[in-house]
Amino acid sequence: MTESTELISDFQHLYEKVKLCYQCGTCAGGCPVFKQYSSFNPRRIMEKLLAGEFKQEVFDEQRIWYCTGCFTCSTRCPQEIDIAHVIFEMKNMAVKVKNAPEGIIAEMTAILETGITAGKSQSVMKRREKLGLPEVPAPDMNEIQKLMDITGVTTKLSSLKEDVA
Predict the structure, then answer these.
(1) DSSP assignment of 140-160
(2) Which of 2, 22, 91, 127 could form a disulfide with 96 if both were Cys (CB 3.0 to 4.6 A apart)?
(3) What is the pLDDT along the chain (165 residues), one digit of tens a residue?
(4) Which helix (DSSP H) or strand (DSSP E) does residue 49 occupy?
(5) What residues does each domain of the chain span?
(6) Are 105 and 157 in contact (CB under 8 A)?
(7) Could you tell me which residues come within 8 angstroms of residue 30 by beta carbon, excluding any fewer than 6 positions away?
C-alpha cells in the first residue's frame, strides 16, 4: 500500500491544478461520457478535489475509469484547467492503492503478452485486403517489453494481478 504521505502529496499537486475551478459546469456540459452516464460528472470530481474529498474517488469508486480521455473538458474549460489530465493522475493514484478495474488489468496484460488489446478480426482483414492495404505488422514485443519495464508497468501489473487472484 502506498504511504498516505505520498497520496497527500499527490492530492496537493492535483489541488494546485484545479484550485482555479469556479464550478461553471462547462466540463460536464461537453462530456460525452456524462451524457450517457450521469454518475460520471467531471464537475463533481473537481468539486470533490477542491473540498479535499478525493479519497473516495481514488480508493473506493470506479467512476474515474469511465473517462475516455477525449479532452473535451480540458479544451472547453474557461480557466484552462487540464481536467482530463487531472483525471488521468487520479487513475494513477488509484493504481497506487490497487484500485484498478479488472478490465484495465486484462488490457495491460494483453499488451504485455501480445502487444495489442484485441485480436485481428477476419472482417477487418478482408476489408483491408479489398482496399489494397498492407497486412497490419506484428508489434515489436521487445520494444513493448522495454517500455513496460522502463515505465514500471510490468512491476505494477504483477502487483495488481496478485491482489485480484
Answers:
(1) -HHHHHHHHHHTTHHHHHHHH
(2) 2
(3) 444 667 777 788 888 899 999 999 999 999 999 999 999 999 999 998 888 877 776 677 788 999 999 999 999 999 999 999 999 998 988 888 888 899 989 998 999 999 998 888 899 899 999 999 998 888 999 999 999 999 988 988 888 887 665
(4) helix 42-51
(5) 4-96, 102-164
(6) yes
(7) 72, 73, 75, 76
Q: Is domain 4-96 given the CATH code 1.10.1060.10 in the classification?
A: yes
Q: Torsion over CA of 115, 118, 121 and 124, rounded to 10 degrees? A: -80
Long-range (24+ apart) CB contacts under 8 A made by 66-74 are 66/33, 66/37, 66/39, 66/40, 67/33, 67/40, 67/42, 67/91, 68/32, 68/33, 70/32, 72/27, 72/30, 72/31, 72/32, 73/26, 73/27, 73/28, 73/30, 73/31, 73/42
CA 13 – CA 8 distance, rounded (Å): 9
pTM greater than 0.85: no
Residue 56 DSSP code: I
Here the contacts of 148-151 (C-beta below 8 Å, separation 24 or greater) are 148/111, 148/112
Sign of the torsion angle spanned by Cα atoms 52, 58, 63, 65: positive
Compute the distance between CA of residue 18 and CA of residue 112 in angstroms, rounded to an integer: 34
